[in-house]
């Protein structure tokens, strides 16, 4: 589907535009994602560039790469990937997000294939990708191993999965649940269930079990004084990200 | 889709160019080159005809380019064409003075030998810098210049910003950058208010030929009506920036050359021997005008459009080039991440980077002008003692030298001479 031939019902466009505006308002409901997005993108783009030998200062450096964004929401990661030249499929298990993301991509002049589906369903359909973006999803799924196995199946040989989630320890409980949901109200209460958080070691084991090879892990650290996020190789205590590859 | 035209009518998928830069002075072309190098397609809209800025009679200003600014010009590939007409600033001497009595006994001296980086900066005349920038912009494959065009309207809708030109032509882009000076139309059209005031002072500017060599020394004499800066140019010439009250400046400007020099001599002193006027004489009224914010949705302001300051510290162009380096870096990093670089949250990073530095500079120039541009005997003693004290403390002196060279603070990469 191209951006010019959306399946969005015209009578509903205004509603979806309003929802898209909400998704993409850097000071609105999704503020925490917007604040985190530059470091997430720095990590994702540098991992893809390294894995596939691309130069980020080139025009459309990701041309020819097929990328799946799982849990695409309003398209906060799908749009940058498309802008860098990738052929992007954005998948979300929440049906309402799909037309919202479509409307916004159209406004941005980008061609993105948004689908109401899951990683498991795409794997069953035999879809193949160079890159699977699996950002802040694994802590929400019922069975992480079968989910990560589906992600592994979606990768072409030599493909790359970037997976981020939240560590499970007293600090992450204070920061991600008490801080982000109750004190700052950055996220609706109940967004996260602490017992579903996964430690880096557990995630590493799950990734290995799913059939991928873990190649990198880093922390995403929020500095409350500078009010910004940065990447840290030492501090994986709350938010962290991993890169893993499928054997060629 | 039921109505296949609806999307096309509402939004265009692509834009005519990535970034429109309004203003063809110095910051505009410099920014265009930095952005063009980073892979952006840039269109510069210049109200003047091509070549007008390089003419000798166009602008009499000389710029004390801080070392960091010279590094930026090197990084964007224009320094080579400027170098032969530049003069290294080896020493800056600041003193308190009164017409007729020459410089006072308390002198503050900044010598480049106290820092490792080399000269504190370079003196360059406007025409040479303008020509070098015009040449580089002309040769750049990603930069287009529309000369003799002005913007009459601008609008932002969705992810597209559009400017309408006086010729009726329209141009769409992801971002509009206003490098259009103190009376920035880009800021006004974006609804960005300004604050500031008129100093009631006017700068008389011209080149002076003198008998003795200047040895790369820049002088700043603080006189009650305003400072007199004497800045070294190639050969036995110096550029003067002579600040008087606006009424006195108008009177002096109207005089013939001989009478003009008669007024200048007691202020200038005789340390460079006989003096004469070399070239056209210019006047620039001085005001402070700061934009209440430097960005809006798909609009960013650079240089005097964001912050027009008193020339007392010679920091106008240097501050503008710092803006250029910072904005180019923010936009380039955003582009490499695949971000929509014209969005307000990206532009806010530029504002956050520059605003504190700019406010510090505004306060410093305000303070210096109030402290020095008067004949109050108490303030006179205070500033003489102050100058003497700073001069007696090498650590603080070196700090000022590094400040003058533009080597302090969180520098954009281009101002360190590095590519983004």
Automatic annotation (TrEMBL), chain B:
Q: Does the keyword Flavoprotein apply?
A: yes
Share an example GO biological-process annotation for this protein: ubiquinone biosynthetic process
Q: What is a single Pfam family found in this protein's UniProt entry? A: FAD_binding_3
Annotated InterPro entries: FAD-bd, FAD/NAD-bd_sf, Ubi_Hdrlase_CS, UbiH/COQ6, UbiH/COQ6_monooxygenase
Q: What pathway annotation does it carry?
A: Cofactor biosynthesis; ubiquinone biosynthesis
Q: Which cofactor does it need?
A: FAD
Annotated Gene Ontology cellular components are: ubiquinone biosynthesis complex
Domain FAD-binding intervals: 16-362
State the UniProt keywords alphabetically: FAD, Flavoprotein, Monooxygenase, Oxidoreductase, Ubiquinone
Look up the domain of life of the source: Bacteria
Q: Which SUPFAM superfamilies match?
A: FAD/NAD(P)-binding domain
Q: Which GO terms describe its molecular function?
A: FAD binding; monooxygenase activity; oxidoreductase activity, acting on paired donors, with incorporation or reduction of molecular oxygen
Q: Does the keyword NADP apply?
A: no
Which family does the record claim for this protein?
Belongs to the UbiH/COQ6 family.
Q: What is this protein called?
A: Ubiquinone biosynthesis hydroxylase, UbiH/UbiF/VisC/COQ6 family protein
Organism encoding this protein = Maritimibacter alkaliphilus HTCC2654
The opening ranks of the lineage are:
Bacteria, Pseudomonadati, Pseudomonadota, Alphaproteobacteria, Rhodobacterales
């Amino acid at each position: 589907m191209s951006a010019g031939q959306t399946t969005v019902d015209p009578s509903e466009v205004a509603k979806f535009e309003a929802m898209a505006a909400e998704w993409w308002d850097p000071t609105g409901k999704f503020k925490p994602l917007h604040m985190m997005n530059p470091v997430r993108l720095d990590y994702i783009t540098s991992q893809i560039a390294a894995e596939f030998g691309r130069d980020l200062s080139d025009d459309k450096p990701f041309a020819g790469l097929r990328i799946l964004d799982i849990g695409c929401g309003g398209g906060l990661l799908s749009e940058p990937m498309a802008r860098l030249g990738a052929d992007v499929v954005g998948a979300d298990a929440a049906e309402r997000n799909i037309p919202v993301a479509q409307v916004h991509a159209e406004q941005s002049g980008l061609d993105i294939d948004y689908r109401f589906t899951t990683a498991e369903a795409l794997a069953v359909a035999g879809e193949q990708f160079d890159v699977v973006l699996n950002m802040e999803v694994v802590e929400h799924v019922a069975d992480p191993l079968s989910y990560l196995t589906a992600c592994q199946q979606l990768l072409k040989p030599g493909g790359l999965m970037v997976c981020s989630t939240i560590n499970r320890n007293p600090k992450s409980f204070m920061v991600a649940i008490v801080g982000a949901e109750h004190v700052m109200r950055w996220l609706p209460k109940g967004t996260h269930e602490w017992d579903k958080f996964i430690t880096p070691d557990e995630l590493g084991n799950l990734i290995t079990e799913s059939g991928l090879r873990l190649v990198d892990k880093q922390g995403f650290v929020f500095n409350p004084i500078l009010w910004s996020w940065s990447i840290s190789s030492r501090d994986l205590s709350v938010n962290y990200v991993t890169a893993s590859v499928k054997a060629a | 889709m039921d109505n296949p035209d609806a999307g096309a009518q509402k939004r265009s998928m692509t834009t005519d160019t990535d970034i429109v830069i309004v203003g063809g002075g110095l910051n505009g072309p410099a920014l265009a080159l930095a952005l063009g190098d980073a892979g952006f397609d840039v269109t510069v809209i210049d109200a003047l005809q091509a070549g007008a800025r390089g003419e000798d009679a166009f602008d009499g200003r000389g710029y004390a380019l801080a070392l960091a600014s010279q590094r930026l010009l090197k990084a964007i590939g224009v320094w080579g064409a400027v170098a032969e007409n530049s003069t290294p600033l080896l020493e800056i001497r600041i003193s308190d003075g009164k017409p007729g009595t020459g410089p006072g006994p308390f002198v503050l001296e900044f010598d480049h030998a106290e820092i490792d980086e080399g000269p504190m900066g370079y003196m360059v005349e406007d025409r040479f810098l303008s020509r070098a920038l015009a040449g580089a912009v002309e040769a750049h494959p990603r930069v287009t210049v529309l000369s003799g065009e002005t913007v009459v309207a601008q609008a932002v809708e969705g992810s597209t910003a559009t400017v309408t030109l006086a010729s009726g032509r329209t141009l769409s882009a992801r971002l509009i950058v206003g490098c259009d000076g103190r009376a920035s139309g880009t800021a006004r059209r974006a609804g960005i208010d300004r604050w500031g005031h008129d100093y009631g002072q006017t700068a008389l500017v011209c080149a002076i030929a003198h008998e003795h060599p200047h040895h790369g020394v820049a002088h700043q004499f603080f006189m009650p009506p305003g400072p007199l800066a004497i800045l070294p140019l190639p050969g036995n010439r110096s550029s003067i920036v002579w600040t008087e009250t606006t009424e006195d400046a108008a009177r002096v400007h109207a005089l013939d050359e001989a009478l003009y020099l008669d007024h200048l001599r007691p202020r200038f002193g005789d340390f460079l021997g006989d003096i004469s006027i070399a070239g056209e004489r210019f006047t620039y009224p001085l005001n402070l005008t700061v934009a209440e914010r430097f960005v809006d949705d798909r609009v960013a302001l650079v240089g005097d459009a964001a912050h027009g300051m008193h020339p007392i510290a010679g920091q106008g162009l240097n501050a503008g080039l710092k803006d250029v380096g910072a904005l180019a870096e923010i936009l380039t990093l955003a582009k490499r991440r695949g971000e929509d670089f014209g969005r307000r949250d990206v532009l806010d990073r530029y504002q956050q980077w520059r605003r504190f530095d700019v406010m510090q500079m505004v306060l410093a120039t305000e303070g210096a002008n109030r402290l020095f541009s008067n004949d109050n005997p108490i303030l006179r003693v205070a500033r003489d003692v102050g100058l003497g004290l700073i001069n007696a403390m090498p650590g603080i002196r070196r700090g000022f030298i590094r400040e003058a060279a533009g080597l302090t603070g969180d520098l954009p990469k281009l101002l360190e001479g590095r590519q983004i």
